[in-house]
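Reopening: structure tokens for the arginine complex, inputs below.
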Amino acid sequence: MQDLQNGGGKAWSGRFKEPVAELVQKYTASIFFDKRLAEFDIQGSLAHARMLCSCDILSNDDLESIEKGLQTILEEIREGKFEWSVELEDVHLNIEKRLTTLVGDAGKRLHTARSRNDQVATDIRLFLRHEIDGIDELIQALQKAILDLAEKHVDTVMPGFTHLQVAQPVSFGHHLMAYFEMLDRDRDRLKDCRRRLNRLPLGSAALAGTSYPIDRAYVAEMLGFEGVCENSLDAVSDRDFAMEFCAFSAILMTHLSRFSEELILWMNPGFGFIDIADRFCTGSSIMPQKKNPDVPELVRGKTGRVNGHLVALLTLMKSQPLAYNKDNQEDKEPLFDTIDTVTATLGIYAEMIPGIKVNKSAMREAAKKGYATATDLADYLVKKGLPFRDAHEAVARAVRLCDEKGCDIGAVSLPELRQFSQLIDEDVYKVLTLEGSLESRDHVGGTAPRQVKLAIERARKKLA
Ligand code: ARG
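Re-run output (same inputs, fresh job):
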């Protein structure tokens, strides 16, 4: 209104006869959340300006002014003094406007050979790359906590489960190392995602490239990108790197959710396998005796929200024609929340693991209760020449007897055991013990304590 030549005095409103409605302004603005990209926006602008100058598109004086102005803006933002304005729509226009206020025409020249479309695509990649490096470190810290706990429990026997029924005895260290492996693959996925996103969109301009004699490789080099995006339409429009990151996150959270489910079960007095330190639990306002595993429960709960963000991004992209559409502005909140959730979850998990107290005797008793060595007895008979199916049948009958007597197989006398097969001798009791069962699974990937120790050694080498 203040400028009748320009419908609202915006960077783009020259062709508009009236200012944009206030409701629309609020609805279309992204400044509420994309100001989080500010530092990366400035990094990108600096590299762009330096390239323009080296290609003689921008004068040395202009470059100097832009550098100084952006430095001032960076400080203003860091000190919380920068005034963000909804009228200026997003982080890019807010910074550009401030730059122009500070340094005049040089600020207006910064946007030469650039569009907000390649600018925002660059900002998100720079931002996400930075976050990925932090997340990789957090995963490693958690892996280290798991390794330290596993190392203390190489020989600790617990029941291994299938169908949540006691199956075979395993080393608790071995069980924990399963999660190390999952996290190791998560790191690999993250690394892959980083490698693919590490390409420069700038130079694609709005969608078709630019007619200025720019040097994209130089910008890529300044910003630490491995190369440039090969296709301008693709560069400004696709957000597959964000989807890929969210897919990584959903899988990571799924792993942590499974771990959480186990911690919750193990802490239930019915299991009594572990206790989680008080500082990670909360009580009940009505039941004075309660100690609830809130942290693992919330991790399990937050997995739903991260999965949701992945679906949001997939859905956001699925019907968009090339190239950039405003829909893409909706990529940020799911991505930001995914990063925040994953970061907070990994941090708290790495702190919680060392505070886990293990009740070895409860684990041992549970392993003894469910005929966990029945398979070992069958294997014993097979090694003495009985076909596996017959051995299975003989042991099943022995288990039935134990059910009636209410005892473990190891507690049945030799004459009684021999009812089921004459092949059974005194040496059977070695395989019927929990330790014997564990030690016999002595190959790479098996639960023998010797193997678990070796697995932990190999795992340590994978961490930085
Ligand atoms: N705020 C926008 C986004 O996040 C920046 C790009 C806007 N481009 C445009 N042509 N309106 O996607």
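The pocket of arginine is lined by residues 30, 34, 90, 116-117, 120, 324, 326, 328-329 (CB under 6 Å). The chain has three domains: 2-112, 117-132+167-358, 365-463. Marking as resolved unless the reporter disagrees.
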